[in-house]
Design goal:
heterotrimer; A alpha+beta (135); B alpha/beta (559); C alpha/beta (370); B: 559 residues; Ubiquitin-like (UB roll); Alpha-Beta Plaits; Rossmann fold; five-stranded mixed sheet; four-stranded parallel sheet; 18 strands; 14% strand; C: 370 residues; de novo design (two linked rop proteins)
Chain lengths: 135, 559, 370
């Protein structure tokens, strides 16, 4: 039996998102209806059906991060990137998301940059990260 | 097992759900996501009851020994009301559907919900299909359409997308239904409790042509309409309303009322001849029937090899055949310019709407109305349907046989075809005309018959999932009947909603009752059929018959 | 820390010698209960699955640690993965499963490769027929719920379904399945091997307005003030949140037992404590947590799908200064309703924080009314 979630994740990693054509290809291979693949893909926040920016920033919005100043970072990120959460910058360099707790509450606030946790965030730290992402 | 239900001690079957037990005890429990025949999902949470003080969904809960169940406590009623309020807040505020046709709006009064304290927060685009229209602004996420499409029909055209309060029903990648592999059977419509899915209506257009004095407007009704239309007017399921239906339609302003059963007889003449021809040539087998446009779409999307291997009969469906004959044979006899004839089919089916737009059919049918639309038309004309005096079909193309009549039930097409094929092949009379092995609601039925000393194996399937299952073993058979909807046309997607297995059985019974009253039971005995061949088509499968009564198919995308 | 003791396959060896039945009764005797939140006796769970006659059985290690403020499973997977894997092997061999899955939440992707290496190493050393595969989640809090994990692995939307049937009887692909979380499986190895194993020790995750956040191994029943001494709050503590779903209580020096916490209308669950000090408004916390639950509701059942977003909108209204006392009553009514009528544990507990904060900190809300 094919494990659908790992297949979706693998293709997502390869292409950066799950396009219609990719979903159809997976459907042909696994015999799982494409409507269900789309249903699964849109259920999970880490799977996207639209093309993503080169870098994905997901900031943790859990209470522990909030209590350690996450809200300021949210506003800072939106202003710096000139986009709202859920959007991608015009130059396609960065997509910005909020995520549920990433288990870094002891080093809050924290974010995931392309899946890697970056902790004890400050505005300065975020600035450096953005600079790297844009280059 | 003993339980206490509303303070009454009763003995119950531990295998049944509390909902079933309550309903058996005449206790009304409102439901939205519950659907007979599907495993309950507990989504809508409207069927709440109190079990030993705790709120549970009665559709999912089995009784426990000595438990105390209350179905009408203040706690229960308040919780139900709140869930309905939350649902209504997401349901379009301008919903104006007839209360009876619509479970949600129908229960508001009983629940006692007057004001809604929440503002609408979502807005979706309407999905206008060629046959089936979806409006997510009415949708309440009960999932019945999705489960019907997947579990009963095995089509998987729709599923949920996104999650949380953004969860909504959608074809993959938010396409329109018309652009995906949907077979347009309309079974989702029958099970939608809020009217979020319905047929693409053509009632308005039909009412316009009825006003046009220059047009000769002919209506033709499918075999299964007469066994279901009465339900729209409060008659018991299974009430046969042939005469009332004809009278009411005539009163609506149609110039002629024809019986599609005659078209069914024509289909049998062609199909049985086609089968005998294959029989003599040794194949290709199985030959598969083509009356059902939902099945045709399923085949074109998912089983195009059946086209390549010539498994499909080439016969048009009965109403398309009759439409062609109306605009050619009848037009000539009645001396009317075919351009001035408008043919309206009343069908139990939403896929027929799509069928009538197929270019390859050079269709004779201008508009297709569902049974529900026909009822709307009759209501609009303020006709007292229950008390109207019976009238007969117009004789020109109005005599049919019992063989044509049973097309409306699963197995009917096969049975009718076998009666004629038997006599064509064996050149002798078939004494017992009933093929009981292919009657009834079993998903897949089969049987054998001898033609010229050889055994012919035939099979019948209804409901998309059963069609798929039968196709796995198709090579075992010579002749297969496929119907997309459970029960056949009597359970079609254009029929009155609120269907259950019980109602389907009653409708089927009505169909066989109609058949038993008929003088002729075999299509080739129909005097009008004989006349049409004599005067116009020569013989089955003649060049002219091929041109008017046969068609071809197109491979379509599996997605 | 007890949880970090390496068992070096000695626990597996002991379990093999004991055989399934005796292993299970040993676990029962030691009093190991689930550490995911429901505190169901682990031995009993295994026993149900053992009794089922099925060729195929599964073990799923729930590593979908999504509860905000909780990071103890991550801590174990980083510091003692060998013992965790051993625990999985013990569970699998005991119930007769040949396939085990670790359902690792997507946010912990960076733990995967190290974990895989450990699996290979341990399996080779253990000479077992059990295969362990990691399945990476993809961002869904609800997939910490055991029936949602099953749906997710089976390739469906990770939406919970109603039990029964319970997973040990009919779980993954309809086969008997034991689902235990990371801490439980690790502790199972310890419970089997260590003579002096202390069943009371729990991993407390303390974070929020404290200067020393982290994972602390403390006995259940310890006084809250003792725990606070370790975590060192920045200011006087106003309230403690037991994760997002557990609700909040005003600071009170209670002994942290299941019953005591329940007595404050909270749920202890997985020993998570988010400390909130007296510089904060509870309304702001309510907003952050409501946002989380509206975002993570799976959408399946009406009260949670429709209700959680209504709660969020009401809190927003309060924060904007536009709400009335009527809105506050509606908030309370909705909170009770969602808790009582939702399908799964997420829905049933997603308004605990509203109900407890309205009970203990109603003034914070009333201050912001119109």
């Amino acid at each position: 039996m094919d494990l659908i979630l790992p297949i979706l994740r693998k293709e997502h990693k390869k292409h950066g998102y799950l396009s219609e054509d990719i979903l159809k290809k997976i459907s042909k291979k696994t015999k799982v209806p494409v409507s269900r693949l789309y249903a699964v893909a849109t259920f999970y926040t880490m799977l996207h059906t639209e093309k993503q920016g080169k870098n994905i920033i997901e900031i943790c919005g859990s209470p522990s991060c909030y209590l350690n100043g996450e809200l300021d970072l949210e506003n800072f990120l939106e202003k710096e990137l000139n986009i709202e959460f859920g959007q991608t910058t015009k130059d396609k360099k960065i997509s910005l998301y909020k995520t549920s707790c990433i288990g870094c509450c002891d080093k809050a606030p924290a974010m995931l940059l392309n899946g890697k946790a970056i902790t004890n965030l400050t505005k300065e730290k975020v600035k450096t990260i953005l600079k790297k992402c844009r280059s | 097992m003993k339980i206490s239900l509303n303070n009454k001690n009763i003995e119950v079957d531990p295998g049944k759900s509390l909902l079933e037990i309550c309903r058996e005890n005449n206790i009304n429990i409102p439901t939205l996501c519950y659907q007979e025949g599907l495993k309950p999902g507990g989504r809508c949470r409207v069927c709440l009851v109190e079990v030993d003080g705790k709120l549970v969904t009665s559709c999912t809960e089995k009784p426990k020994e000595n438990s105390k169940i209350i179905t009408n406590s203040e706690k229960v009623l308040k919780a139900r009301k709140m869930n309905i309020e939350l649902i209504m807040a997401g349901h379009i505020t301008t919903c104006s559907i007839d209360k009876d046709a619509h479970d949600l709006c129908g229960m508001l009064e009983e629940i006692g919900l007057t004001g809604i304290r929440f503002e609408p927060i979502r807005k979706y685009k309407e999905d206008l299909g060629s046959s089936v229209v979806r409006n997510d602004n009415k949708c309440i996420n009960c999932g019945r359409c999705i489960r019907t499409c997947a579990e009963i029909q095995a089509v998987y055209a729709i599923d949920f997308a996104s999650r949380g309060y953004n969860e909504h029903v959608a074809p993959y990648c938010e396409h329109n239904l018309a652009d995906v592999a949907c077979i347009k059977c309309g079974q989702c419509i029958l099970h939608c409790p809020v009217g979020a899915i319905h047929e693409r209506e053509h009632l308005h257009e039909v009412m316009e042509v009825l006003k046009n004095k220059k047009k000769h407007v002919i209506v033709q009704t499918a075999p299964s309409i007469r066994a279901a239309l009465g339900e729209e007017f409060g008659l018991e399921p299974g009430t046969l309303v042939t005469g009332k239906m004809v009278a009411a339609l005539r009163k609506c302003g149609f110039d002629k009322v024809f019986d599609v059963n005659l078209g069914a007889d024509m289909t049998i003449m062609e199909e049985a001849s086609e089968f005998i021809k294959r029989f003599e040539n040794g194949g290709p087998f199985p030959m598969i029937t083509t009356c059902c446009p939902g099945w045709i779409l399923m085949m074109e999307h998912f089983y195009p090899d059946l086209i390549k291997n010539n498994n499909m009969s080439t016969c048009k469906s009965p109403h398309e055949m009759l439409g062609m004959l109306t605009k050619s044979y009848y037009a000539k006899k009645a001396n009317i310019d075919p351009k001035d004839i408008i043919v309206v089919s009343i069908m139990p089916c939403t896929a027929k709407k799509f069928e009538s737009t197929r270019p390859e059919l050079e269709t004779g049918v201008d508009y297709v109305l569902t049974t529900r639309e026909a009822a709307k038309l009759i209501r609009f004309n303020k006709i007292d349907f229950k008390n109207i005096k019976d009238e007969n079909f117009d004789p020109a193309l109005g005599i049919a046989t019992g063989a044509g009549a049973i097309f409306g039930a699963t197995g009917g097409v096969m049975e009718a075809a076998l009666r004629t094929a038997y006599e064509f092949g064996n050149q002798k009379t078939l004494e017992k005309v009933e093929f009981n092995e292919i009657r009834g609601m079993d998903g897949i039925k089969e049987g054998t018959v001898k033609v010229k000393g050889k055994t012919i194996k035939f099979a019948v399937a209804h409901g998309g999932a059963n069609n798929r299952k039968l196709l796995e073993n198709k090579d075992k058979y010579h002749f297969i009947e496929m119907m997309a909807c459970p029960g056949g046309c009597i359970g079609g997607g254009g029929q009155p909603p609120h269907i259950s297995k019980d109602i389907l059985k009653k409708r089927i019974k009505a169909i066989y009752k109609e058949e038993s009253n008929m003088e002729f039971k075999k299509s080739h005995e129909n005097p009008i059929v004989r006349k049409i061949y004599k005067e116009y088509l020569d013989h089955p499968l003649s060049e002219k018959a091929e041109k008017f009564l046969h068609t071809k198919y197109t491979k379509r995308s599996q997605f | 820390m007890q949880i970090l003791e390496k068992t070096e396959l000695k626990a597996l060896k002991k379990a093999r010698n004991l055989g399934p039945k005796k292993t299970i009764s040993l676990l029962n005797k030691k009093g190991l209960t689930g550490r995911g939140g429901a505190s169901f006796p682990t031995g009993k769970k295994w026993e149900f699955a053992l009794k089922q006659k099925s060729k195929e059985k599964y073990v799923i290690c729930n590593a979908d640690e999504g509860e905000p403020g909780t990071f103890k499973d991550k801590f174990i997977m980083q510091k003692n993965p060998e013992t965790l894997i051993e625990g999985i092997l013990i569970a699998s061999e005991t119930i007769g499963a040949k396939q085990a899955y670790i359902y690792l939440r997507g946010e912990y992707e960076n733990l995967k490769s190290k974990l895989e290496k450990t699996i290979t190493k341990v399996i080779r050393k253990a000479k077992t027929k059990v295969n362990i595969e990691i399945i990476l989640g993809a961002g869904a809090y609800v997939c910490g719920e055991e029936t949602a994990i099953i749906k997710s692995i089976e390739g469906f939307r990770g939406q919970p379904y109603l039990k029964p049937p319970y997973p040990p009887v009919e779980g993954l692909y309809g086969k008997p399945t034991v689902i235990n979380n990371v801490e439980t499986l690790t502790a199972a190895a310890h419970a089997i091997l260590l003579d002096n194993w202390n069943s009371l020790l729990r991993l407390f995750c303390i974070s929020g307005d404290v200067t020393k956040p982290g994972v602390y191994e403390l006995p259940a029943g310890i006084k809250l003030s003792e725990a606070m001494k370790l975590a060192k709050p920045k200011n006087p503590v106003k309230s403690v949140y037991f994760g997002c779903f557990g609700g909040c209580m005003p600071y009170k020096d209670i002994e942290l037992t299941h019953d005591n916490i329940c007595g404050e209308d909270c749920v202890s669950g997985s020993c998570t404590m988010i400390v909130v000090d007296n510089t904060r408004s509870i309304v702001d916390l309510a907003y952050v947590i409501s946002k989380f639950f509206a975002y993570e509701s799976c959408g399946k059942c009406t009260p949670c799908r429709e209700g959680s977003v209504r709660i969020l909108l009401l809190i927003k209204k309060i924060r904007q200064g536009k709400a009335t006392a009527q809105d506050l009553n509606l908030l309370q009514e909705l909170g009770e309703h969602i808790g009582q009528t939702s399908l799964c544990g997420l829905g049933q507990s997603c308004t605990n924080h509203i109900l407890t904060s309205l009970k203990h900190f109603r003034k914070d809300f009333e201050k912001e009314l119109r």
